[in-house]
């Protein structure tokens, strides 16, 4: 013990701690920090407390380094422009590390490449780490970020500690999670999720930075080790690759923990909806990335008397309470939302949320110190000039390139949302009455249908497909399977994930939430959306609520229960231009093909023996 004490003492001197105290850390945290520092060799260590003063320091550091600039049009808003090589999640470089490959990916058909998660062996991980991490923080500060997913101290919450050499990551984690000293006190001597992150640019630099944004796209790797609750990420500073509480912890590791403990970690928004009679229900909904979660969660309803309140816009952790009611919490503390398409017309709630204390990444900037992206054309004064996310001054639509990157984002505190639900931080979570699945389906898929029962609902989730967003649009209609909107986020074998979902029925004596499929994105033969979407989606939620109450407003079809003619409330909509017949039409040829495609997908990716037999 004396020896250990001496060596710790020694390291406190050699590892220059410029903020906080190593000796205040609990032994397990301390060991993790020591090991990380020994491996990455930072020049100093900063233990984050989450304070306002600390944030000011971080913003200063970043401003000096040219990583961020202020947006003086708003209060405490900042703009970051990344290296154009580091703008999105990198699915091909994201791995789940297990001893057995089968624990990560279903066996699938021989000779077919599995698309449901990438597997890496522990040996390979060791090798990849040893090629990247030794000395990777040289000349930089290593920040220690203690954080809670979910309200601090809630029985549903989980704690992580991330070490990172990116001040941008720290500032963003402060918004997206509950971060700081209080978390370590709550943690006590318990285990936590260990998150090691480096942008992979030790000093002195081997190549000049682009936009002062350190990263190493060629060697980027994002790995998850469910056996030891560890996340190791290298080379990217962006979003889901670097804010490790979000996709890596709350979804990938989260789903493995949820399976062990008998609950669900899902890529879902959570919203509260109150009808004109004052009845309030909560709904969770899974749509793939860039398919409308943030927009639905913050919707301004067009039907009079309805109220929507937001609990979360991206991730839901759902557990049964002692009465067998499925309850959900939003493990996050902020919104990391898609910027393009957001406007006062489509999402006024999001617009008013982001006008203070927000970090914008890869959006365009107006000459009066404001933000700009595709969708804000009508809301931007004519007399300002626009600088694109790539730095082109005097950007205009004529140049043929977008002003903002299609995956540009805002990172903003959830508490600022004007319609944040009063119970959004309730430790027990909110009771879920309905679960929605949906995606971008330009053809054949009706506006809404209800699953016949839980098992059918699980099939509907498993069979989810969606049109690829942004880049793929030019290649025509590329429809991709995205089961449960979780394809990029499964932490374990999808076959076992299905078994887990099916097992929910046996975990409660109460009736489970009803399951629905929605599609805001059906198009006419001229390629225009036939449903107005956004605030009008409340009409669909209204029908769903009536089904939840048991109203007889549905009729059977081949795919599920459809709204009985006339039961969808269209009052106030211009029905002369709305093709209600097309909204619900089930083209036979389309569905025969769809069923064959789904059967083939399961056959190739999951090897479905007797579990689900699909015949066209
Ligand atoms: P992630 O945050 O990446 O998981 O995506 P998300 O599911 O939160 O998607 P988001 O709500 O940000 O929507 C993405 C895009 O879809 C935006 O450009 C929106 O304008 C558009 N969108 C959202 N809802 C609707 C709708 O009801 N109709 C139409 N036509 N577009 C919509
Ligand atoms: Mn998402
Ligand atoms: Mn979103």
Automatic annotation (TrEMBL):
CC terms in the record's Gene Ontology section: cytosol
CDD domains: PEPCK_GTP
Requisite cofactors: Mn(2+)
Biological process annotations from GO: cellular response to glucose stimulus; gluconeogenesis; glycerol biosynthetic process from pyruvate; oxaloacetate metabolic process; propionate catabolic process; response to lipid; response to starvation
Domain Phosphoenolpyruvate carboxykinase GTP-utilising N-terminal: 32-259
Sequence ranges assigned to domain Phosphoenolpyruvate carboxykinase C-terminal P-loop in this UniProt record: 263-604
Assigned keywords, A-Z: Decarboxylase, GTP-binding, Lyase, Manganese, Metal-binding, Nucleotide-binding
UniProt cross-references to InterPro entries, sorted A to Z: PEP_carboxykin_GTP_CS, PEP_carboxykinase_C, PEP_carboxykinase_GTP, PEP_carboxykinase_GTP_C, PEP_carboxykinase_GTP_N, PEP_carboxykinase_N
Annotated Gene3D superfamilies: 3.90.228.20, Phosphoenolpyruvate Carboxykinase, domain 1 (3.40.449.10), Phosphoenolpyruvate Carboxykinase, domain 2 (2.170.8.10)
Catalytic activity: oxaloacetate + GTP = phosphoenolpyruvate + GDP + CO2
Pfam families noted in UniProt: PEPCK_GTP (PF00821), PEPCK_N (PF17297)
GO MF annotation list: GTP binding; manganese ion binding; phosphoenolpyruvate carboxykinase (GTP) activity
EC nos: 4.1.1.32
Assembly behavior: Monomer.
UniProt function note: Catalyzes the conversion of oxaloacetate (OAA) to phosphoenolpyruvate (PEP), the rate-limiting step in the metabolic pathway that produces glucose from lactate and other precursors derived from the citric acid cycle.
Family, per entry: Belongs to the phosphoenolpyruvate carboxykinase [GTP] family.
The name this protein goes by in its record: Phosphoenolpyruvate carboxykinase [GTP]
Organism of derivation: Petrolisthes manimaculis
